[in-house]
Amino acid sequence: LAEFNRRKKLIKDTCEKYGAYTTREKLLAKMKLKPGPELFTGVETDDQLWSILKKTSHHQFFVQKEHGLMWCKVPKAASTSWLHAYLRMAHVPEYEIPEDNGMGLHAFLREKYPLLSKNLNKQFMPVSLKFLVVR
Prior knowledge:
The chain is elongated and about 55 Å long. The longest helix has 16 residues. By secondary structure, it is mainly alpha-helical. It is built from 6 helices and 3 strands.
């Protein structure tokens, strides 16, 4: 448990250091940075990119309410293994799980864990253990 808490603190500290769970303004102030110069017409500004990035990330979250988990699925990083674990947590019998390890299996997971609205994601975010797997 001590090792888990140490890792959890390291993740939280690192995320805060690099601006996760904050606003662009707070991050720039903390890092003592100024917004970049204006770009040519048709080229996205920092503000536009920040806005896009903040809006597009929740579609990979799979919320397991019963166990208080939020998994941010990263393709090709043990996603099929976690997919099977999530299906077991959803009490899906083994015989109902398609053998296809292509996109059909991942679509089946989304059927069992529908995409939540932004507001529901915000409700579960503070009370869930959030994780992702990278390689």
